[in-house]
Design goal:
Number of helices: 9
Protein name: Phosphonate transport system ATP-binding protein
CATH architecture: 3-Layer(aba) Sandwich
Order of helices and strands: EEEHEEHEHHHEHEHEEHH
Bound molecules: adenosine-5'-diphosphate, magnesium ion
Oligomer: single chain
Strand order of the largest sheet: 6-7-8-3-9-10
Keywords: ATP-binding, Cell membrane, Membrane, Nucleotide-binding, Translocase, Transport
GO molecular function, one term: ATP binding
Length: about 270
Amino acid sequence: MLEIERLTRRFGEKTAVDGVSLSIPAGQMVGVIGRSGAGKSTLLRMLNRLTEPSAGRVLFDGTDITALRGQALRDWRMRCAMIFQQFNLVQRLDVLTNVLVGRLNRRPVLTSLLRMFTAQERAMALAALDRFDLAETALQRADTLSGGQQQRVAIARALLQEPRIILADEPIASLDPRNARTVMDALRGVNRDGITVLVNLHDLATARDYCDRIVALNAGRVVFDGPPPALTAQRIREIYGVTEEEFAEEAAAAVGAPPPRHPAIAAA
Ligand SMILES: Nc1ncnc2c1ncn2[C@@H]1O[C@H](COP(=O)(O)OP(=O)(O)O)[C@@H](O)[C@H]1O
Ligand SMILES: [Mg+2]
């Protein structure tokens, strides 16, 4: 159970995240939506302490994450893997090594990469790649892969951390629809294994299709929190003051994503 209590982050005069409270049971898949600047990335980054909160707390299974220091903080970051819009692979390294990097957080010095990994770790990495149909790419350089393949490599790398939570910040914003689906299927698959997933999405239709729960942010605050069917086109209009089509187009443009597919909008 992840408990977020009145979490707040200010940047100067600006309050990026403003008193957000959420209780997320283990194994849930939560989509976070909102306009550009709503606070989605800041919220996710505070959960693994890439950004420090100004106020509030995060508890994971009763442990106060916001108070962790040193090794305990490094352990938490292992348990709480991040996925980014730009995949963040080391382009000139091969795919297998990129996945094995997921094991490195424990190790202080990064030297002679390949000799540092055990046979068991290499088997784990290959199994993770195989799961996403990427085993045959293991020895290719990362930059020979498509965006969708690279993002699945990033998910495989995250799995090598043996995470309890995956935090994905706009994981499909740079992908075409087909690749976006393979990546969302991969995230949903690992979620079904029991890993909690929090995913920032610019695309409402994807959030509806894949998530158990949608949290909508506006100006740093939670303005909707419920199951996808409850987030009707009417609710979107009430919350954001624009039609769902307008919201979708604006959100896609903000992350440089292709224009949204024709929205299949639930009747209000
Ligand atoms: N490092 C930073 N310094 C100053 N302002 C920031 C910083 N990070 C985010 N912000 C501001 O906080 C607000 C929320 O940003 P962000 O969390 O990136 O929103 P989103 O991911 O929803 O687009 C924005 O107004 C943004 O400009
Ligand atoms: Mg963002």
